[in-house]
Amino acid sequence: MRIILMGPPGVGKGTQANRIVDKFGIIHLSTGDILRAEVGGNTDVGKKAKKFMDAGQLVPDELLLNMMENRLQQKDCKKGYLLDGFPRTITQAEGLELILKKINHSINYVISLTADETELVNRLVLRGKESGRSDDTEEVIKERQQVYWELTSPLLEFYRERNLLFEVNGLGTISEITNRILNVLE
Ligand code: ADP
């Protein structure tokens, strides 16, 4: 099973991603987590990505595509995967299609979690206070939301056209939302 999980920042993608991968025995590929590990390790990729991340902007498409092309060819991806935070632009989605074609994979489902924007900003401000993530300040959160609506939300149409898109209400308890997602996947 290969899944893309989409949704605006703060909608609870990470939480739901963990539950889904456990259930299906697939791996969780969060580009945010991968990039934060690169930044933490002070690698070449990390050095290039840091300034974009701290500003709430997208890391350049080419860097993401190279990184994910390598990652998707590793052995642990054979059992299936959930992509969380990627693709995030039309260019990335088109690039991903080429990569998948090359390695003979296809995506089974694109799940989009939906929620109201003010609710999301409030949640993220709260999370920032708890987690200390450097990009969870109100200003950067608003920037990330804007980037989502401008650059990422056009992907909904892209995947709708390919008959892969399933929209799931992202408001409710964690379990309620998980069940809605499982209803789509099962
Ligand atoms: P959130 O979805 O909560 O904003 P993520 O952990 O998914 O946070 O991503 C954090 C940051 O990492 C993004 O703001 C962006 O700078 C960078 N990033 C992650 N995935 C991508 C991607 N696919 N393309 C470009 N930048 C990305």
Number of helices: 9
- CATH level 1 class label: Alpha Beta
| Cofactors and ligands | adenosine-5'-diphosphate
Annotated CATH homologous superfamily: P-loop containing nucleotide triphosphate hydrolases
Determine the strand fraction and express it as a percent band: 5-15%
Low-confidence stretches: none
CATH topology: Rossmann fold
Helix content: 55-70%
Order of neighbouring strands in the sheet with most strands = 2-3-1-4-5
Quickly count the domains.
1
- N-to-C terminal Cα separation, in Å? 11 Å
Q: What is the H/E string?
A: EHEHHHEHEHHHEH
CATH architecture: 3-Layer(aba) Sandwich
Describe what this molecule looks like in 3D.
59% of the residues lie in helices and 13% in strands. The chain has 186 residues and is α/β, with parallel strands linked by helices. The chain has a five-stranded parallel β-sheet with strand order 2-3-1-4-5, sandwiched between helices. The protein is globular and about 40 Å long. Bound molecules: adenosine-5'-diphosphate. Adenosine-5'-diphosphate is lined by residues 9, 31-32, 35, 52-53, 56-59, 64, 85-86, 88, 92, 135, 144.
